[in-house]
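name: query_chain
kind: protein
chains: 1
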Amino acid sequence: MLGLALPVLAEESLTMLVGYTDWWLAGHFLAGAEYKAAMGLMSYVLWLLPSLFAAVAIGATALIAKFVGAGDREAARRVTNQAMLLGSAFTIVVLATVLLGSRSLVQVMQLEGRAAELAVRYIWILTPVIPAIMLEQIGVACLRGAGDTVSGFLAKSIVNVVNVVVSTLLVIGPGNIPNLGWEGLAIGTACGHGLGGLLVLVLLVRGRAGLRLEFAGMRPDPELIRRLWRIGMPGGVDVLAVLCCHFVYLAIINGLGVEAAAAHGLGVQIEALAYLPCYAFHVAAATMTGQLLGAGDPHRAARSAIEACFVGGAMLTAAALVFYFAGAWLAGFFTGDIHDPTAIAAGKLLKIVAFSTPPLAIVMVLTGALRGAGDTRWPLVATFIGLIAVRLPLACLFAWESFQVPWLGITVTGLGLGVAGAWWAMVIDVVLRSILLVFRFWQGSWKAMTE
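structure:
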């Protein structure tokens, strides 16, 4: 379990460092709440773009893990090629959607004025490397299913090093290097993802972990594509539902003003510390569960998920203590001043999220275990209940002074707690989803999933 999780932990740490570098540079060299508000939205966009390929990635990981567990490497190679074919088709759709809808997205998210223009410029600079982001997401997912979690770490190392160097140089502009400011942040991120995706492509073309990308293998195989889609589609819908709800959630907070948006964006970026062990053990649980079920050992598959929950939960409990007692200091590090209004507000939000951090480990790890087993529908149900039925209505009720219920014309009086109220709604949602996923795991039907 640790052999699978630790490289992913290192990989995700580097991914987080990309966002942290951008936030630190924006906080120290780009003055104004508009930059922080735009960075808050860009954090979500950088989460959105890889997640658009989640359906293919989840299906590829689950199928490859089962084939590898059953000793059928040739079938695993076929899945890899078909996953890349399907991902390429998705890329065309994503590119067209981003090119046509980026400005509309920023408007829907209720960013206005200069912050909105900054966000649109960042998205346009990032658009040309969307194919490379697809290669990172799906290629690394295939390799993880085969048990190789080191290649993803190598790719993210490239992304991080290039982003840190290029962004820093273009924002600060030492010597004869041009000072591009905000555009420099976007260019650094784009360069990093471009080279990271290229590395994954080279590894798969040359052959890695028994997988190889071949042009002949990318001829459409309708049956295999159908199996990929049948497994991955519920998981992909789950990920996109989470994203859509988070974007609505962000719009609720952005409606409170630029200062609230800035504090939320910084708080979310720091809270990403908790996602690192979560996602690392999510991947480990998915790979081990799939491979052990493929090998016909459901007992060890269950044990691997339980142990991942214990270890991930212990790490997130430590993170919760850091958020509660040192959140304000962490926020001040990014803004350059612990007395900065954005840092003070973000520190208060981190005290709130500390209460949901340990349950988050259960949500993430058990979601990975169930997806690895091919049970992608139950996490989707938990997502819809927790996010749509609980988080979004409670965020409106807790954050706003009043709001109107769509289509019913009813005005509801809220608590008016501001961005803090929205974060308490998030805590309730995460706790509820952890209970639902524990119930599904102990019920045990996932052990008999075929596809």
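note: Strands lie at 402-405, 410-413.
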